[in-house]
Design goal:
The protein is α+β, with helices and mostly antiparallel strands and 199 residues long. The protein contains seven helices and nine strands, in the order ββββαββββαβααααα. The protein has helices at residues 63-76, 116-125, 140-152, 157-163, 168-172, 174-184, 186-198, and strands at residues 6-10, 18-32, 35-47, 52-60, 79-80, 92-96, 99-105, 112-113, 130-135.
Length: 199
């Protein structure tokens, strides 16, 4: 059914910056009196390569229609992934059903050390450096769901500090706090300016 993990930009008006990946197309045959009826289900991952990613499943009698439906579901269920530079803020281990997922931050230049359906989600989110491992299941649907759930559990040091009503230095120490601020750069300055305006 074509190449797996094929990526092509989705061009539809205001959301033309989204990239779509077909992770898996599955054919289902139903035996009826006159023969067999075929239908297709497509697992689609959609992302803007800049911290937003979503996944969806579409079912239809035609492959193209199944992909279109899956893309619409994926766009409705997009999540925001917190990032520090080109990697994730901290390590995450998650068990969802029989899928066991491990995501680990990596140094710049490492690349995406991942395979299967996890790679489609991580690359669509725009993460450039990460180490991953998947155990327990090879089912791409469960792997994608577990990967998205793991990405939702990520928190930056600033978010944790805000939740606990503390300064970022009290959470990670002065040296790491300065590194976080350098990596955030203009974003941190914009957030500080916004906070000052609110006060």
């Amino acid at each position: 059914m074509g190449s797996r993990y094929a990526q092509r930009p989705y061009s539809s008006g205001e959301r033309s910056d989204l990239a779509e990946r077909v992770v898996r197309v599955n054919r289902v045959a139903k035996v009826v009196k006159g023969g067999r009826k075929f239908s297709f289900s497509a697992l689609i991952v959609v992302g803007d390569m800049n911290g937003r990613v979503g996944a969806g499943i579409g079912k239809a009698r035609e492959v193209t229609e199944a992909i279109r439906k899956g893309m619409e579901v994926a766009k409705r269920n997009m999540i925001t992934v917190p990032m520090v530079g080109t990697t994730i803020p901290h390590e995450v281990r998650l068990k969802l059903g029989s899928a066991r997922i491990m995501l680990k931050p990596a140094a710049p230049g490492t690349g995406v050390i991942s395979g299967g359906a996890m790679r489609a989600v991580i690359e669509s989110a725009g993460i450039k450096d990460i180490l991953t491992k998947s155990h327990g299941t090879n089912n791409p649907i469960n792997t994608v769901r577990a990967t998205l759930a793991a990405l939702q559990q990520l928190r930056t040091a600033q978010q944790v500090a805000d939740l606990r009503s503390k300064e970022i230095e009290q959470i990670v120490g002065r040296r790491l706090a300065n590194a976080y601020r350098r990596s955030d750069g203009a974003e941190a300055a914009a957030a500080a300016a916004a906070a000052a305006e609110v006060k």
